[in-house]
Amino acid sequence: MIKNVLIAIVALFFVVAANAQTIDPTAARALALQNVETLNLTVDASHDFKVSNAIVSKESGSKILYLQQTYKQVPVFNQILVATLKNDKVVYTAGSFLSQAQADQRAGTISAFPSISKEQAIKNAFTSKSIAAPGSIIVKYEESGIFHFGQLAGNLDDVTAQLLWTPLESEKKIALTWQVFFTPAVGSDMWLIRVDAHSGAIVGETNLTVYCDWGSPDHVASGAHKSHISGEGSLHEEAEPVSFYTGSPSIVNNATYLVVPYPAESPQHTGGTPVVKANPWTLAPGNATTLKWNSDGTDYDYTRGNNVWAYEDRANNNTPSIAKSATSLTSPDPLTFEFIPDFTQEPTVNTTATPNQRFNITNLFYWNNIIHDLMYQYGFDEVGGNFQQNNQGRGGAQNDYVRAEAQDGGGNNNANFSTPADGGSGRMQMYLWTAPTPDRDGDVDNGIVVHEFGHGISKRITGGPANASCLSNQEQMGEGWSDFYALMATHNWATALPTDGFNNARGIGTYALNQPVTGQGIRPARYSTNFAVNNYTYANLPSVAVPHGVGFVWCTMLWDLTWKLIEVEGINPNLFNANGTGGNVIAMKLVTEAMKLQPCSPGFVDGRNAILQADENLYGGVHKCLISEVFAKRGLGALANQGSAGSASDGLADFTLPTTIKLTENVVQVQEGQNIVYTNTVTTCSALANYLITDTLPANVTYVSGGVYNNTTRVVSFVVNQAAASTATYVF
User: Cβ(391)–Cβ(467) under 8 Å?
Assistant: First the structure.
């Protein structure tokens, strides 16, 4: 009886978890252990794992577990195994663990107990960046192995330290390290510094800020690192108190914003003339906009809400304030953000007659909310690791709205985005662009705004929301996903034609670069399915810049995929309708779902495979051949080999389509004298002519029927002739 009660309790728990789109770590661990053989896990006192995230994809219903390896009870950096389950059975895995023998060999005699304190490690990390460490460093609290120290030495975020094993690939060793997270008050950096926990030496670092350097196509993002880290965390502390949702908050229910409206890319693009948008949150259905845009449970009559606080940062001090925000012309409800710009004057002008700066801040606020609401429909929600101050009890970590800094004084001709793990505020810094008078403002180049926000999306999703360091390897495709989301969000799907992908090539950043809308933009070519315009393939990867050239090739493939899906499935005029049909919606769902499934530090083949699995999860694999055809055309065919995802130059392109053969039997076990029926299932995306399937029978069976049997060789054979994109069975 007791056993039955326990089962009932567990079953009830899983129902609640599924409804909440999250899974308790204890239950997630139990699921992993139920599938220990499929996952190839060996678990003992020194070689184990912890659940860093576990979610239920609301799009596919799949359970996705993010398992981080531990060694001697200490997490191992970026050794994350991603497991996708249907009906509690593993259907797909990505990533891997070090074997116990590998971990033992690489650790050698290194003790799992640190020789230097976490406080000393913080001092060493600060010193490495020329920051004077305070005399007193005191732990405020500890949570899940992460020690929080508050905003030391003027840092903008909570300084944290965590004990990790860090693989040193060049030496084939793992080092015990203190990973220190901090955000200096000056500049754009957001650091993860790894300090050897025995010697105190700096053994690696990662900058969580992606510097897009839009003015140069040959830049290298600061996301590159010397060795890996994981498990970073931060809490942004506001000087102002924050109220949290209690079920009946005061909410600003009506507001108007004068902006360059969705889906226009910029003021010079079609539809880009500034217009007043009333209550634009009504574009998004469901929970994305429970609090509307100017409330997080507390109302704000300036450009602040649950998802973003937008403000100018001309002083480059990274500090928000009401005075630096755009304040409503009316209050408290309705709000009015109608600041009429004059594009013939400098974007920083902020007079009563010419409120350019307030217009630009308002536009930045508007577009951060647009992309938040849009991506919420595709699974970038609270559990998915999105950016919200108040998660309203829906899971995930909160206190992490985007700090959107307009007209940032830290530079020109640029933009960047900083992404800590879930629970730490993302930061978007938008710059002015030098041009023939007047300058142009990135805050109204909506493609750039979405691109930057896209870095927060891909870094939060890949490897799970608890890890934001999984996109630092050379072949990672972060810039490609950002371009893809920018293209999708700034394409007018209500007027789009199925031929747009071929006929209307798209440049990225043309407004900020002072180019015409037909300009090339920042990339090596415009995005187009027309090979006469863009003929880049996976074979070009060794010759393009890291990371933007790499991302450009990936987005080229995703853009091709979108228009091929549109060719078959048509166009949904409303991209916010994620539950609707249409190739554009299907592409958004496949690309976003796939990022949840792929490994930490992915390469192109990993990304392709994840999209194929996403199609299986979402649509039963109906688009498999279409997807394979698109990738094969761009050199990512069935036999493509990415080599090491840590290198962008060792991949092997391939242009062939896949063919798979699966052998099944009708019984697992049968008495002697009874028949066993074997079935070869051949699925091919290309036509097959006179292919031969052969099966050699074991000595303990007698051939009965099916195929052509050779009694001497005991071989059953079938001649296969199949059309492209077909499946057939061959039974004996």
Answer: no
Reference 219, options 465, 545, 483; nearest CA is 545
Q: Which of 265, 382, 452, 479 is catalytic?
A: 452
**DSSP notation for 712-725:** TTTEEEEEEEE-SS
> How do 308-312 and 402-406 pair as beta strands?
parallel
Rounded-to-integer distance, Cα 616 and Cα 614, Å: 5
| 152 conformational bin, left if phi > 0, alpha if psi -120 to 50, beta if neither | beta
pLDDT score for 517: 97
- The per-residue pLDDT for range 14-50, each reduced to its tens digit, is 333 334 488 999 999 999 999 999 998 888 878 899 9
Give the DSSP H or E segment for 241: none
**Helix/strand/coil percentages in the chain, nearest 5:** 25, 25, 50
Angle formed at CA 332 by CA 328 and CA 335, multiple of 5 degrees: 40
**Rounded CA separation 441/412 (Å):** 10
Residue pair 381/394 in contact by the 8 Å Cβ criterion: yes
**Beta-sheet strand order (sheet of 688-696):** 688-696, 715-722, 708-710
Residues 10, 20: Cα–Cα separation, whole Å: 15
- For 611-637, give one letter per residue: b (16+ CB within 10 A) or e: bbbbbbbbeeeebbbbbbbbbbbbbbb
What's CA 132's distance to the chain center, in Å? 35
| Beta carbons of 428 and 335 less than 8 angstroms apart | no
Q: What pTM does this model have?
A: 0.91
Angle at 510 between CA 493 and CA 552, to 5 degrees: 75
Hey, how many other C-beta atoms are within 10 angstroms of the C-beta on 74?
Answer: 19
- Non-local (6+) Cβ contacts of 625 within 8 A are 657, 685, 724, 725
- The pair of three-digit structure tokens given for residue 569, joined into one six-digit string: 């499935």
8 Å CB contact between 92 and 595: no
Alpha carbons 410 and 488: distance in angstroms, whole number: 29
> What is the per-residue pLDDT for 211?
86
Catalytic annotation on 452? yes
- Give the chain's residues under pLDDT 70: 1-20, 213-249
Q: Please give the Cα distance from 287 to 384 (Å, whole number).
A: 13
Distance CA(213)–CA(225), nearest Å, equals 18
| 695, 718 contact by CB (below 8 A) | no
pLDDT tens by residue, 377-431: 999 999 999 999 999 999 999 999 999 999 999 999 999 999 999 999 999 999 9
Q: What are φ and ψ of residue 727, in 5° steps?
A: -130, 135
Which of 409, 451, 537, 520 has its CA nearest to residue 221? 451
Establish whether the linkage from the previous residue to 334 is cis, with ω within 30° of 0: yes
Among 413, 406, 411, 407, residue whose Cα is nearest residue 434: 413
CB neighbour list of residue 62: distance below 8 Å, 6 or more residues apart: 56, 84, 85, 86, 91, 617
The pLDDT value given to residue 242: 36
Angstrom distance (rounded) from CA 302 to CA 684: 57
Query: Could you tell me where the DSSP H helices lie in 490-534?
Result: 500-503
| Residue 327 structure tokens | 């304040």
The residue with tokens 């060795």 is 227
Supply φ then ψ for residue 77, to 5 degrees: -50, 130
